[in-house]
User: Fold this.
Amino acid sequence: MGKDVIIALDFKSGQEALAFLDKFKDRTLYVKVGMELYYAEGPSIIQEIKKRGHKLFLDLKLHDIPNTVEKAMAVLSRLDVDMVNLHAAGTIEMMKAALRGLTRKDGSRPLLIAVTQLTSTSQERMTEELLIREKIDDVVIKYAENADIAGLDGVVCSPLEAGKIHDVCGTSFLTVTPGVRFDDASKGDQVRVTTPAKAKELGSDYIVVGRPITQAEDPAAAYDRCVKEFVEVSK
Ligand code: C5P
Assistant:
């Protein structure tokens, strides 16, 4: 499975996002568009980014009844994105419905991955507010197994969980991991962070990197550093 660095395009407008992409000249990238940018601009920003030749992960984290998710995924499949996601908490039935909706007439489809527990959810809140009494690590693994059973391609998780998830769901089950920082940089609001090199060592398939690249003085150089550490150097 090819490793790649996905740049989180966390910008509030298409204009800002495209100006950022211009800094990379003719290079083709793998980028992530989340709710903020998508809700601001709609499908046009996806088409514009795809027109420039980039790969695109549309991070909308769907979570609704199976029928609604199936139909929404059918719409997203027409956008020519490369990866989309949903919440595993929607159950195996919802994930299967999502796959059906996403699969085009010719059998092709974007990769579909699941969010297990959001990294912003603490053990305490999960237990007290959601009444899930298991250990959060076990919940993450169980949700990953559910995604695997439903036929999904992988999960979003912490690099620290990637190895265990591969042990349980197999090495070809993708782990897409945010929470990446260079060892000489501030963490921002991320708590459990790893460097690109460490993420590779831990078995991540894709790292999702936002501010270390978007806020860098030289974003192209920061991106190159990620690629060097994650894709080219360590094993
Ligand atoms: O700027 P930073 O590198 O922290 O950005 C990480 C990106 O990954 C953001 O777009 C954030 O929403 C996303 N993400 C995350 N943790 C998750 C899921 C997604 O940080 N569990």
The CA atoms of residues 123 and 235 lie 32 Å apart.
